[in-house]
Known about the structure:
This protein is α+β, with helices and mostly antiparallel strands.
Amino acid sequence: MPKLNEYRTPSPKAITLMRITSVIVTALFLVVPAVCAAIFARDYLGRAGWILVGAAALFSILYTLIAPPIRFKRYRYMIAEDRIEIIEGLFFIRRTIIPIDRIYQIDVRKGPLDNAVGVEKVMVTTAGSSAAFRFLEPEVADEIALYINKTVLGKIQSKMKGDAQDV
């Protein structure tokens, strides 16, 4: 059973996954376009094109070194008796609160990068949105999913008993 009413941190493996993700994102959206611009527009850009490539590569390296520890430090989640809270972000901090009695689906997932690092995520879905407990050890992910499922079923059963007594 997960600790209730207490913020928990992700697995230490999360920093590795965050670094891999940072490299992929900055390479795809920053370095590759800069290299393409430098090659295809070399007549117009000249040396400025290669300076652009160097700046993009430098930014990519700095982002990969600085952003993951900050994201890791800010990432927290809490499971309470009546709600789930997830706090995350780099520049903008997002706090997601989901009432337990609104949850209708729980998924435990792991993608190829999660699998390579050895972490999983628990996706919690309500009628209006979804949230994810990310960067969890597999045992912790299973524990959280089973606890939330048991809690939701308990609330449904107690509500059904209350409705039956009203009749």
